[in-house]
Amino acid sequence: SISLSNDTLKAVFKEIIISLENFGARNILLLVGHNGNAQAMKDVARELVTSHGYRNVWYYQQSVNKDLCKQYLEAPIPCNCVHAGEMETSMMLAVRPDLVDLSKSEKDFPTLPPEAKYRPVSWDEYITVGSYGDPSLATAEKGEAFLNAIIDEVVHLINDIM
Length: 162
Fold this sequence. Notes:
The protein has helices at about 5-20, 35-50, 65-70, 85-95, 140-160, and strands spanning about 30, 55-60.
């Protein structure tokens, strides 16, 4: 993995957005594919409203759709997170099954420490295997359902702002 600090990520997004604005972009939609980047994208959108008056910068952060989870998931979602669990593994099975080796999957139902509400908590304080939940329950059919729901949300957002 290659990681960028939040400050660097924000600077990159800000410069790309300003460049797009200079070319006359009508609307800019930032699709958040990793929850760890969500706050940086929100911060950039807020800063650009304040500093440049850009009101056409939108962001979409896919969140856990509890109704969809109730409908399709067999295991509970620990810590309200889906990292490499049944949902994310299902989505990977739907789009790139060649990258999934379920024989290596491990169940983990971690409990977020109570102090996480008040301070940043490192993953190694409560995660043992890197996944949340039971990835062995994943199927491509569940993945397609989740992906279609996400696509529908994004399409509705785009249609609403265009």
